[in-house]
C-alpha cells in the first residue's frame, strides 16, 4: 500500500543529504519533493544566482517554497564576455528585470550590473520573488544601489510591491557587510549602503544581526536617503551588532523598537567615522527599554584604539550607568569599567549591589585588570551573600581578564585545561568566592580569552 503524501513529506523533511536522490526516484516523487529542495537555498556566486533565478522564473511555485536564503558563502566570480552576452540575451531574465524596473534606463543599468557579476544586482532581482521567505542571511558591498533601491520600494510599497506587501513572513535577518565584494566601478561613487534601516520597518521581522554598522546622528533621513523608522514603530525585539561603532548609542535603531528584548553590541574603532565607544550614550538610548530588555551584551570583546577620529580615546572606560532600573534583565555581559564607576578611584562610587536588577540570572564581566580584581571579588561576595533577598534568580557569574600564568604559557601547556593555566594568585583570590557560590549552587567561572585555544 502506498504511503500518503503527508507521510512521505515528513520522511523527506527528516532527510537532509538525500533529498536530491528522492527527486530522481519517480515523477511522483519529483513533484512531491522538489519544493523541499528549495526550502533552504544557498547561493555562492552569480552563476548559482542565475541558475536559481531561471528555475523560479520557469516554475514560480518553487519561489514560494523558499523559506531560507543564505548568501554568506557568496564569493565574487568573474564573468566572461560570452557569459555577458548570454545574460543580455536571456529573454526571461531581461523581461523580469524590465517588469520590476521603473524605467528603461534603470533596466539597462541593472542588466549591465548583472553582466559584471554584481552580487548587489543579482540579489536585488531575486528578492521580490521570494514571497514566503522566513529567514534571510544577506551579504552586501559598501555601495549597494540596487539592493538599497529594492528595499526602499518594499517600505514605500512601490512597484514591484504595489499589489501586495513584501516579506510578510520574514522573521530573521542577518546583514553582513563585505568589503571584498566592492568593485571598482562607477557605482562605487554612490553613498554607503543604508540597507539596515528598511528591515526595521517590516512588521514581521523580530531578529536583526548586522556587522560594521556606523552610527550617525539621530536625524530623519541619512545620507543614503533612507527614512529612519519612527520611534516605537518597529516589531524588532532582538538586535545584534558586531564590529560596529555606535557614536550616538544606536539611538535611531533602539528607539524604533516597541519592545526590545535583546541588545548585543560589539564595538570596533576600525571604522573611519568611529569616535570611540561611549557607554553613557547607550544608557540613554536603552532607557525606554527598561521594562522589556532581557539580554544586554555591551562591547563583547570589542576593539579599541588609543586614538579615534575624535582624538584621544578615553570614553571607552566611562561608566554605563546603573542597571538596577532595568527590571526585566536576565543576562548581562559588560566590561568592568562600564559596569562600575571606578575611573577615578579604586572603589566604585556606587556599589555593585545597587547597580544590578533583581531579575538577573547571568552576570559576565569582561576586561577585569588584575589591579581591580580584589575589589571586584569583594563586590561580588556582597552580591552573593545578598542573593536571596536581592537577586533570587542569579545562577551564573563570570569574570574575564588577563589571568593566565605567564610561566605556564611559556611552557606551551597545549594539553592542559584552561583552569590549570589561570595563575595561582587569581585562583587564591577567588577561593572564598568560589566557596560562597558553591554553597548556594551558583556557578562561578574565571576566564581568560587568551586561553580559549586550550
TrEMBL record:
The residues the entry assigns to the signal sequence are none
The record lists the membrane-crossing segments as none
Composition bias, kind Polar residues: at what positions? 221-237
Per UniProt, what is one Pfam family of this protein?
LRR_15
Q: Where is the Leucine-rich repeat domain?
A: 52-399
State the residue spans of region: Disordered: 217-238
Protein name, per record: Leucine-rich repeat domain-containing protein
Amino acid at each position: 500500500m502506498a504511503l500518503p503524501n503527508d507521510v512521505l513529506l515528513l520522511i523527506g523533511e527528516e532527510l537532509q543529504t538525500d533529498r536530491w536522490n528522492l527527486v530522481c526516484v519517480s515523477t511522483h516523487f519529483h513533484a512531491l519533493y522538489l519544493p523541499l529542495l528549495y526550502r533552504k537555498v544557498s547561493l555562492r556566486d552569480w552563476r548559482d544566482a542565475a541558475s536559481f533565478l531561471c528555475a523560479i522564473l520557469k516554475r514560480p511555485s518553487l519561489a514560494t517554497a523558499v523559506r531560507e536564503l543564505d548568501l554568506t558563502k557568496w564569493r565574487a566570480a568573474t564573468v566572461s564576455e560570452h557569459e555577458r552576452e548570454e545574460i543580455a540575451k536571456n529573454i526571461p531574465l531581461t523581461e523580469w528585470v524590465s517588469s520590476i524596473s521603473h524605467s528603461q534606463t534603470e533596466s539597462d543599468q541593472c542588466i549591465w550590473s548583472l553582466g559584471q557579476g554584481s552580487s548587489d544586482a543579482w540579489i536585488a532581482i531575486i528578492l521580490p520573488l521570494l514571497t514566503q521567505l522566513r529567514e534571510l542571511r544577506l551579504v552586501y558591498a559598501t555601495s549597494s544601489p540596487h539592493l538599497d533601491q529594492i528595499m526602499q520600494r518594499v517600505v514605500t510599497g512601490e512597484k514591484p510591491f504595489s499589489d501586495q506587501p513584501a516579506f510578510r513572513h520574514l522573521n530573521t535577518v542577518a546583514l553582513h557587510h563585505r568589503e571584498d565584494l566592492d568593485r571598482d566601478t562607477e557605482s562605487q561613487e554612490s553613498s554607503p549602503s543604508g540597507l539596515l534601516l528598511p528591515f526595521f520597518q517590516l512588521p514581521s521581522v523580530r531578529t536583526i544581526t548586522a556587522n560594521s554598522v556606523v552610527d550617525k546622528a539621530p536625524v530623519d533621513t541619512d545620507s543614503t536617503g533612507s527614512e529612519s523608522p519612527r520611534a516605537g514603530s518597529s516589531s524588532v525585539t532582538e538586535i545584534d551588532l558586531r564590529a560596529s561603532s555606535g557614536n550616538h548609542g544606536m539611538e535611531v535603531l533602539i528607539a524604533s523598537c516597541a519592545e526590545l528584548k535583546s541588545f548585543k553590541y560589539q564595538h570596533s574603532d576600525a571604522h573611519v567615522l568611529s569616535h570611540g565607544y561611549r557607554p553613557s550614550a547607550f544608557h540613554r538610548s536603552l532607557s525606554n527599554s527598561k521594562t522589556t530588555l532581557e539580554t544586554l551584551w555591551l562591547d563583547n570583546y570589542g576593539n579599541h584604539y588609543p586614538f579615534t577620529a575624535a582624538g584621544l580615546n578615553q570614553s571607552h572606560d566611562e561608566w554605563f550607568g546603573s542597571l538596577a532600573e532595568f527590571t526585566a534583565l536576565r543576562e548581562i555581559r559588560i566590561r568592568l569599567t562600564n559596569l562600575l564607576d571606578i575611573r577615578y578611584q579604586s572603589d566604585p562610587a556606587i556599589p555593585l549591589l545597587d547597580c544590578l536588577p533583581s531579575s538577573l540570572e547571568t552576570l559576565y564581566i569582561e576586561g577585569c585588570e588584575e589591579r581591580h580584581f580584589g575589589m571586584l571579588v569583594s563586590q561580588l561576595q556582597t552580591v552573593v551573600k545578598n542573593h536571596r533577598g536581592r537577586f533570587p534568580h542569579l545562577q551564573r557569574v563570570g569574570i574575564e581578564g588577563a589571568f593566565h600564568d605567564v610561566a605556564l604559557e611559556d611552557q606551551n601547556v597545549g594539553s592542559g585545561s584552561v583552569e590549570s593555566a589561570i595563575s595561582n594568585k587569581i585562583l587564591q583570590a577567588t577561593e572564598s568566592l568560589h566557596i560562597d557560590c558553591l554553597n548556594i549552587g551558583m556557578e562561578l567561572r574565571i576566564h581568560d580569552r587568551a586561553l580559549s585555544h586550550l
